[in-house]
Specification:
Distance between the termini: 9 Å
Shape: globular
Low-confidence stretches: 422-427
Strand content: 5-15%
CATH class of the largest domain: Mainly Alpha
Strand order of the largest sheet: 4-1-5
CATH superfamily of the largest domain: SecY subunit domain
Radius of gyration: 24 Å
Oligomer: single chain
Number of domains: 2
Largest sheet: 3 strands, antiparallel
Order of helices and strands: HHHHHHHHHHHHEEEEHHHHHEHH
CATH architecture of the largest domain: Orthogonal Bundle
Length: 427
């Protein structure tokens, strides 16, 4: 593998892309260390520490800790992710957007990308204002005025827009998906502090040695499982009929229609977690009710450590997995494309029988993929309850994102190396 990396570095084009990606990530990390003015960062960090099981805690993890420091890049890639999800949903709901995505070609993709950018800025404005109001209401600001509000909100909006631009530059001139790479870098930057806090806990006696061993083994097992499932796919055999065009014979070859087991990636977990955490987030901003009252029992029932929360979270992941599977795969469209190209699935007639079979296969593999995601998401919560560390709940999601992005980036490098007749990472 070391020899392979050396060969990859020896390719001038690939070397330029690696250096460009590294420089962009360096700028991102510098931006994550520059706080906006008028904020008491120590007070903000201690406040968000108690909000680790809410949506704010999830935001902090996704931003690589920048959210707790109120830096220029505090909002990170969250506005872009949210806008992408919203545009995907609207593409299904609005016929004009659906036609643009389906029939618009490259020009249609550019228009949808432009709409996503505008939506990102709009969401960044809302989130920036909400973030400012949160800090204002809880006395985290050193000064309060219209100018302070304008400077802070403008900084958050500009930072989020710049992060989106950097992600697009990585996608175009670097390696892999830019937004995913930035998300990966943000989460990975928290690893040293997590290791340091674990060592400190062991030395102080607040963390048992068996708990530390359990966490490490759990993370390693999670990485192995994610790697295995990420590469798993169901291949449907496809046969192409022979056809004569002039004097030449075309077709007759056998192929496969690959379908990934986990085709929706980590999006169902992120979306389900954001929705499942809403009750606990609202509860965190409300006054704590007296013990023994109805509201006290209700808040305990919807807590992120409760059984009810885990059941709801589990079901939400499965629901969103099926939703994203239906977005990505249209059995009727696949069947029609096979028919147009003279292809057929052995044992099934072209048209409706083929689309019904493909739908049946999609439902089966989506169920397996959804159960895998749900189990992977729930296990860290259970482990956190056992070792009394609630931050592990968000940590499980982080591991899925990091491993998934790392694998996709390696595949991207692999593809570029294969084009240049080099042995790749995966061989």
């Amino acid at each position: 593998m070391i020899q392979t990396i050396k060969k990859a570095w020896g390719i001038p084009e690939l070397r330029k892309k690696i250096i460009f990606t590294a420089l962009i990530l360096l700028i991102f990390r510098i931006g994550n260390a520059i706080p906006v003015p008028y904020v008491n960062t120590d007070l903000l960090s201690s406040y968000l520490e108690g909000m680790s099981t809410t949506v704010l805690g999830l935001y902090n993890v996704m931003s690589g800790g920048a959210f707790a420091q109120a830096t220029v890049f505090a909002l990170g890639v969250q506005p872009y992710i949210n806008s992408s999800i919203i545009i995907q949903l609207l593409t299904i709901a609005i016929p004009a957007l659906e036609r643009l995505a389906r029939d618009g070609g490259e020009e249609g993709k550019k228009k949808i990308q432009s709409i996503t950018r505008y939506a990102t800025v709009a969401i960044a404005i809302l989130q920036g204002w909400g973030y400012y109001m949160l800090m204002k209401n809880y006395g985290i600001l050193t000064e309060k005025s219209f100018w302070v509000a304008l400077v802070m909100i403008a900084s958050f909006i500009a930072g989020s827009s710049f992060v989106m631009w950097m992600g697009e530059q990585i996608t175009e001139f670097g390696i892999g998906n830019g937004i995913s790479i930035i998300l990966f870098a943000g989460i990975l930057s928290r690893v040293p502090s997590m290791v340091s806090s674990m060592i400190s806990g062991l030395r102080a006696g607040t963390l048992a040695w068996w708990a530390a061993v359990l966490v490490v083994l759990g993370i390693l097992a999670l990485i192995v499982l994610i790697t295995w499932v990420n590469g798993a796919e169901r291949r449907i055999p496809v046969q192409y009929a022979k056809r004569q065009v002039g004097r030449k014979m075309y077709g007759g070859q056998a192929s496969t229609l690959p379908m990934k087991v986990n085709m929706s990636g980590v999006l169902p977990i992120i979306f389900a977690q954001s929705i499942a955490m809403i009750p606990s987030t609202i509860a965190a901003f409300c006054k704590q009710p007296a013990e023994g009252t109805f509201w006290y029992g209700f808040l305990n029932a919807i807590d992120t450590k409760s059984v009810l929360y885990m059941i709801f979270y589990f079901l939400m992941i499965i629901a969103f997995s099926y939703f994203y599977a239906t977005i990505q795969f249209n059995p009727v469209e696949i069947s029609n494309n096979l028919k147009k190209n003279g292809g057929f699935i052995p044992g099934f007639r072209p048209g409706k029988p083929t689309s019904d079979f493909i739908l049946k296969v999609i439902n089966k593999i989506t169920l397996f993929g959804a159960l895998y995601l749900a189990i992977v998401a729930i296990l860290p919560i259970i482990a956190g309850i056992i070792i009394k560390n609630t931050s592990l709940a968000v940590g499980g999601t982080s591991v899925i994102i990091v491993v998934g992005v790392a694998l996709e980036t390696v595949k991207s490098l692999e593809a570029q190396m294969l084009m240049r007749h080099y042995k790749g990472f995966l061989e």
